[in-house]
Amino acid sequence: MKSISVQELAGLGQDAEIVDVREDDEFAAVRVAGSRSIPLSRFVQSLADIPATGTVYLMCAAGGRSAQATAYLEDQGYDAVNVTGGINEWQRGGLPVDHG
Q1: What domains, with CATH codes, occur in the chain?
Q2: Which residues of 28-43 are buried (b: 16+ CB within 10 A; e: fewer)?
Q3: 36, 41, 53, 74: least surrounded by Cβ within 10 Å?
Q4: What's the per-residue H, E or C state across the chain?
Q5: CA 33 to CA 42: how far, in whole Å?
Q6: pLDDT tens digits, one per residue of 66-87
Q7: Which residues contact 62 (CB under 8 A, 6 or more apart)?
Q8: CA 98 to CA 74: how far, in whole Å?
Q9: In what order do the strands lie in the sheet with 55-59?
């Protein structure tokens, strides 16, 4: 499985396709600007919402749920990359987030 650090992801700029697999309440509280929410609890049913081309970066709170989603997408033929440390590491690194 491919993975990337939050610092590496931040360096890619706003063109990076970030899918946040945390639940709706978690995403509503804090998120990376421009990321899209597709909770792991309905991830398989929402596969059509994931871009079929290009690289998709998957994020959760700490990296466990996004690793599951990344593995699933790789099995489906997607170019998927897990974001290690998730939103928790993103915030610890002082990277910008949206709230509320």
Answers
A1: 3-99 (3.40.250.10)
A2: eebbbeebebbbbeeb
A3: 53
A4: CCEECHHHHHHCCCCCEEEECCCHHHHHHEECCCCEECCHHHCHHHHHHCCCCCEEEEECCCCHHHHHHHHHHHHCCCEEEEECCHHHHHHHCCCCCEEC
A5: 22
A6: 999 999 999 999 999 999 999 9
A7: 85, 86, 88, 89
A8: 29
A9: 3-4, 79-83, 55-59, 17-20, 36-37
pTM for the model stands at 0.96
Residue 44: CB atoms within 10 Å: 10
Q: Give the amino acid at 68.
A: Q
CB atoms within 10 A of CB 2: 11
- Spans in the chain with pLDDT lower than 70: none
Tokens 């700029």, located at residue? 13
98 CB neighbour count, 10 Å cutoff = 13
